[in-house]
TrEMBL record:
Annotated Pfam families: Cnd3 (PF12719)
Superkingdom to which the source organism belongs: Eukaryota
Domain Nuclear condensin complex subunit 3 C-terminal: start-end pairs: 3-179
Keyword annotations of the record: Cell cycle, Cell division, Chromosome, DNA condensation, Mitosis
PANTHER family: CONDENSIN COMPLEX SUBUNIT 3, CONDENSIN COMPLEX SUBUNIT 3-RELATED
GO biological process, one term: mitotic chromosome condensation
InterPro entries, A to Z: ARM-type_fold, CND3, Cnd3_C
Name this polypeptide is given: Nuclear condensin complex subunit 3
Organism expressing this protein natively: Blyttiomyces helicus
Amino acid sequence: MLKCLSIIRCVLQCTQEHLRDNTSVSGLLESFIYPGIRSPHPVLNSAALECLGLCCILDRNLASEQISVFHKALELAFNSSDEELTIIVLKILFDLAIWHGISRSPNHVHPVDVQDRSTSNIIIVPLLLFRMTETKADPETDLLASIATKYLDCTNEAILTLTAEGLVKLMMSGMMKNTEVNNAGDRIGE
């Protein structure tokens, strides 16, 4: 099964089609990826999560549906001190945030300036700051907020490095301003 997941990962890395337009790839979800995630073997879990992450990049709806799978995997990996899986899932979440944005609809969450703390409905985190336009919290934004606060306080250098890489990706993609990155850097140094 691991070899199959490795081949699937390579295929997904090379494809540019939306999953809705590629039924053969979407069939791999049920046959290999979901069973790999449910497997009791950590190596299969990691490979299947990577494949699911690539599928989610190809399909925004799938990304919205599966965000809780990544959150659960991240919590389990971090709590069990599985650094490798923690890094894999963090990379997936950063990539999904960059590729699809943070919320399910583009008008739901807007970037804000760090200096503007006058609004009471701002989730204050050094990594990602977004203004909620609805009173109901968005699970994806809450997930990224919890990731940001938890992993900026982590003492693991690899995870802190990944957080910095994620910040740079978000800055380079225009999702964050330089002032937000500087404030996040100050937070990491504390």
